[in-house]
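Worked example 4.2. Below are the chains of a multi-component assembly; read each line carefully before continuing.
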Amino acid sequence: MLNKKLAIGIDIGGTNTVFGFVDREGNILVEDRLKTASFQKIEDFVGALFKIMAATGSRIGKGFEIMGYGIGAPMGNIHKGTIEYSASLPWKGIVPLAEVFHRHTELPVIVTNDANASAVGEMIYGGARGMRDFVVITLGTGLGSGFVVDGKLMYGHDGFAGELGHTPIRPEPSERECGCGKKGCLETYVSATGLTKTFIKILADSRQPSEFKKLSIDEINAEMIFRAAKKGDKLAIKAFHITGKILGYKLADVVSHTSPEAIFLLGGLALAEELIFKPAKESMEEYLLSIYKGKVKLLPSKLNSKNAAVLGASSLVWSDLKS
Amino acid sequence: MLNKKLAIGIDIGGTNTVFGFVDREGNILVEDRLKTASFQKIEDFVGALFKIMAATGSRIGKGFEIMGYGIGAPMGNIHKGTIEYSASLPWKGIVPLAEVFHRHTELPVIVTNDANASAVGEMIYGGARGMRDFVVITLGTGLGSGFVVDGKLMYGHDGFAGELGHTPIRPEPSERECGCGKKGCLETYVSATGLTKTFIKILADSRQPSEFKKLSIDEINAEMIFRAAKKGDKLAIKAFHITGKILGYKLADVVSHTSPEAIFLLGGLALAEELIFKPAKESMEEYLLSIYKGKVKLLPSKLNSKNAAVLGASSLVWSDLKS
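Applying the procedure described above to all two chains together yields the following structure tokens:
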């Protein structure tokens, strides 16, 4: 019998690193995790990761073959296999991730940022199957984006294409501070944290009584605002409305750059469904040039948002083998 | 002796259509033009064009072989060989340009918009030789853009990628009306007409005496403002400064989408050199995310702006033969 071919998908986040052994059809056979933040040195992190991956792999038993490692990480650079100046990881400067991996394996190691990984995942396992031109926007703590152009992930000259989270949404100075050091970046408005900031400002302006006014600013989070909006809280609905409007405005801009067939939204905010999709769609259509109007699909990702990053990362291996 | 291989590059503009017989090295052997606006029917236009092209070709004598027709036209769609809903041409709706051409020829006919054609021209004959990822911005009456991603022109799903001229530069309503029916589009600020509008508003605000205040608003044009700025006219310099700043702000956005190696400026405004490049560069760097800062070249096109469109259009033929 032939061995079953598997790819290992690894999602390196600021708190946890999650990985899974994934088959060509997108089934995660086994998965596990370790605490990213426990490792001050990249060598120690990768060493510990290989140990736990070996233990996890042994749970599947025999009859499989690993084809490579796909890694999604903040500021992951596909050209160099590095992570560069990530603000959320414990390792500073330029981290030679693929190089350190290759002390443990001779298999292909592909590194890119998490949103790019999700875009490849959407193309191989998700709603973008058969599409040649589309965009994936990840709406989590921040905002990430991955562009597929003519069937291939767009990396750009430096390997850093698709950093929409840090496009300024206003030319005039905005006071909303971003983790990148700039002000008024898209992700300070359109993300779980952006929604929360907008909601707190709505609370400040409003004379309407609200249970939220009994909470501290640090206590309020996007999950609470979502639950309140679902129950019909007008101020919470307004926060989603404003967030969706800004997103849609920016998506019109994205369309004018790359003319995609569809834009997929993935991650926590995308789970709010019509609360975010309706104002985003309306606003996108309002700002679109007429040749694009009514043509660009705005869709929820078909990847389970819990597994998207691992699936996406694993799919890098298949997409690498193809080319 | 082998025949010399030539491509015919055709630039269809609202007033004139210019064409040239171009060799692989970018030399225009002969060229001529006809009045686009004289032809109400596309069939008549193409018929007249083939007549004049035959006459022009006979001036070269024998010993050449035509490889195909490359056409740059507003709203040219490469996927379908059509011109779609152009506001500046006499033919309305969807014009089946390649189809009408094929009544006269069996050779390849490639249609795209003028800025895309210029981007291919820059790659084949100009300053982008050897580059895989770059952007060309054409600054004429309007603002056009063409993106090359991983060595190929980006068309997008609909064939209309790269309509930067019609990205809104402000989320809040701007009063500046665009020919596309929207308000606040980039080209209403960054183009020859945009510069002129900005300059007139500066004149209105200023108490400084100026010869321009004796002219009618319709008389003032970008050429005059350029000459005045060159002579040190402070208000004219200010108009270039504001225009360059807005351009640079938008270019930072472009970089966050596609991470290009270089951005080329082409057309009338680009000839103003430091008057436009200096504020554009400063403003782009100001808004760039740190991973991009200091890395993206902002360069004048190396195509002669007079011939760029014809050269670019002809280069579509070579790029088509290659693929």
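Take a moment to check your reading of the output against the notes. Chain B is about 35% helix and 20% strand. Chain B has two domains: 4-123+306-322, 129-300.
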